[in-house]
Amino acid sequence: MSFRARHLLGIDHLKPDEITELLDLAQDYAALNRRTVKHSDALAGMTLINMFFENSTRTQASFELAGKRLGADVMNMAVSQSSVKKGETLIDTALTLNAMQPDLLVVRHPQSGAVNLLAEKVNCAVINAGDGRHEHPTQALLDALTIRRAKGRLHRLTIAICGDIAHSRVARSNLILLGKMENRIRLIGPATLMPAGVGDMGVELFEDMREGLKGVDVVMMLRLQKERMDGGFIPSEREYFHRFGLDAEKLALAAPDAIVMHPGPMNRGVEIDGTLADDINRSVIQDQVEMGVAVRMAALDLLARNLRASRGRTAVGEP
Predict the structure, then answer these.
(1) 108 is in which domain, residue-wise?
(2) Which member of 7, 69, 108, 167 is catalytic?
(3) Which pLDDT does position 253 carry in this prediction?
């Protein structure tokens, strides 16, 4: 097994063969999830805690479902009702969780780096479910699996990531992953929504969406992260849709078989036309949701294997 990571905190530390191994396993779990009986015992006897400091629907639900389908005992920690709201520090929380002896911990947090800090303080495998503007590794992995299934490969494609790049942890993780897999990446959006130093990341930049979409194989739209904006980044939502929202007229400039993606939740009529989002001939947005469960099952499975191997070495006195 080439996947040797103890935690899944980001994409940057993963090698291309590790990404491929995880996606191959996720492909098997995608097939399992379409069967009448969707159960595996890969995590039998293990405990998974989902700890979300930010609201989430898709990610939290898919991790819960993934854990249960793999046979784990799953606990969703309601942070809004926990001691964290009473002033408990993140370190205190880590120590409390550690005393519960979990095997796997899934964390979403509004501060970049918070999940890495937790991972240093607990004796279990940790998965980053999104931290601030930093990373969202399982989203990038499920996007990669969706692309591979739709296009038949995950290399040497031209992929446009469009919209609010500056505030998007999804964009950052996808930039890293898709770059590792030798794809040509275009970033499209207003200058106000481009991160500093993005020109040094080996990507092509476009402020004209029509120009940027010409001939692309994949169009990945991003949500406007209004909760992370503290100023006037766009003149108005109506003007934003006119210039940077995806509609049939703009999509016509992409390759004839180009697919449309969006990590959700969507602002219909702002980032993407609702009719296009629902077009089963072009949109793979629902496939992304389906692949999210499969990818998270694969990530939990591989980390659990490494955790068991580590505990086995410790038991016989190996470092």
Answers:
(1) 7-134+289-310
(2) 108
(3) 98
Are 149 and 275 found together in one domain?
A: yes
Annotated binding site for carbamoyl phosphate: 58-59, 108, 136, 139, 264-265
Q: Is 152 found in the same domain as 263?
A: yes
Q: How far apart are CA 33 and CA 166, in angstroms?
A: 35
Tokens of 253: 């400039």
- Show binding-site residues: 58-59, 86, 108, 136, 139, 169, 223, 264-265
Among candidate residues 126, 104, 94, the one with its CA nearest the CA of residue 46 = 104
| Catalytic site includes residue 108 | yes
Q: How far is CA 27 from CA 42, 91, 298, 306, in A?
A: 16, 36, 9, 20
User: Which of these is catalytic: 38, 47, 58, 214?
Assistant: 58
**Run means of pLDDT, 10 residues per run, the chain, 319 residues:** 93 96 98 96 96 89 98 86 66 86 94 92 95 95 98 98 94 96 96 84 93 98 69 73 95 98 92 95 97 98 96 50
Q: What is the rounded CA–CA span in Å between residue 298 and residue 138? A: 10
**CATH code of the domain in which 184 resides:** 3.40.50.1370
Task: Confirm whether pTM is higher than 0.85.
Answer: yes
The answer to whether residue 58 is catalytic is: yes
Tokens of 111: 């501060």
Whether 242 and 304 share a structural domain? no
Q: Which of 7, 134, 136, 296 is catalytic?
A: 136
Q: Is 34 marked active-site? A: no
Per-residue pLDDT at 53: 87
pLDDT of residue 233: 63
Known catalytic membership, residue 308: no
Q: What are the contacts of 268-272 at 24+ separation with CB within 8 A?
A: 269/237, 269/241, 269/245, 270/224, 270/237, 270/240, 270/241, 270/245, 271/163, 271/221, 271/222, 271/223, 271/224, 271/241, 271/244, 271/245, 271/246, 272/221, 272/245, 272/246, 272/247
Residues 6+ apart with CB under 8 A from 291: 26, 30, 142, 145, 146, 149
